[in-house]
Design brief:
Helix content of chain A: under 10%
Number of helices of chain A: 0
Number of helices of chain B: 0
Oligomer: heterodimer
Largest interface: A-B, 26 and 22 residues
Number of strands of chain B: 11
Largest sheet of chain A: 7 strands, mixed
Structural class of chain A: mainly beta
Distance between the termini of chain A: 34 Å
Radius of gyration of chain A: 14 Å
Radius of gyration of chain B: 14 Å
Structural class of chain B: mainly beta
Order of helices and strands of chain A: EEEEEEEEEEEEE
Amino acid sequence: DAGITQSPRYKITETGRQVTLMCHQTWSHSYMFWYRQDLGHGLRLIYYSAAADITDKGEVPDGYVVSRSKTENFPLTLESATRSQTSVYFCASSEWSTSGGGELFFGEGSRLTVL
Amino acid sequence: ELKVEQNPLFLSMQEGKNYTIYCNYSTTSDRLYWYRQDPGKSLESLFVLLSNGAVKQEGRLMASLDTKARLSTLHITAAVHDLSATYFCAVLNYGGSQGNLIFGKGTKLSVKP
């Protein structure tokens, strides 16, 4: 089915472990994003990508790594998880032009708990 | 740096009443988006506002954009329980990479009978 899918949907890990959250979209959107959602902070941008092999930092990038070797995939890796990274992570994609668009389409979210 | 502020952050309404959620932003932008989020769910797009004076309506919700005032409003008419959710506005950040949206903290709406 067309859309944007995230996996895993739920993950419990321990401090210091590496975790990778996967994101796959079937629309061939150029732009992809990772946000985290925490109570009191709303959605904060971690990393984004304008195209394959082009990524850039958002508001809260520390402790995270991304890659985008293919247009449809945008994995997010926590290299050494910390308790402060317990959150709900949303992947999103969009297509932007000077004449319109820019609307983000979100995945279902990945709920990560770091013990 | 673009900042987006919503108010109120919490809103308890009675069914049948009208109310407005406000979204202010700090730097020039002409694209604004409204999203709805139900508890434990993802964000669903409600409105895309792409120019000054844009007005969109869907059911009991109406959104407008005033780029000169850097203000968008989401008006709720004759609220019903099904509208209970958290509503986010997001503004296109021209200062960042194209396509980068900055979100407000959300307005949690509770509609009571």
